[in-house]
Design brief:
With about 120 residues, the protein is mainly α. It has helices at about 35-55, 60-95, 100-115. It has a single domain (about 35-115), classed as Methane Monooxygenase Hydroxylase, Chain G, domain 1.
Length: about 120
């Protein structure tokens, strides 16, 4: 896969697609692997903060508010990954062949089913 921002990654079926290697992108474009890693590190810090809050016997509503914040941040990462997957991997597979496109769409539908069931 090239690092050229305008290029689409090659088709990778059955779970082989990864986030694009872009940085500095806006919310409406592919976020890039480094941005996802940065966001996840921030969420990791939030979770560690939650552990400290529990250890310090922080008032429960405050802890729950912070849990909701971390949950929302994880949901944003999931939506971004799914959006990038649709934009790059699924659209590229659909351009290659109908069968590849159908396989990728079925994979995305399965992922959405899992997320909705939470």
């Amino acid at each position: 896969m090239t690092a050229v921002a305008a290029a689409l990654p090659e088709v990778r079926l059955a779970g082989e697609c990864s986030p694009p290697h872009r940085t500095g992108a806006t919310r409406r474009t592919a976020r890039g692997k480094e941005d996802y890693l940065r966001r996840l590190r921030k969420i990791e810090g939030q979770v560690r903060g939650l552990q400290r809050m529990i250890e310090a016997d922080t008032w429960c509503p405050d802890v729950v508010t912070q849990v909701a914040s971390a949950t929302r941040a994880l949901q944003e990462v999931a939506v971004g990954l799914l959006s990038d997957h649709l934009r790059h991997c699924v659209s590229n597979a659909a351009g290659k062949s109908e069968a590849d496109g159908d396989q990728m769409l079925a994979e995305v539908a399965g992922t959405i089913r899992q997320v909705v069931r939470l």
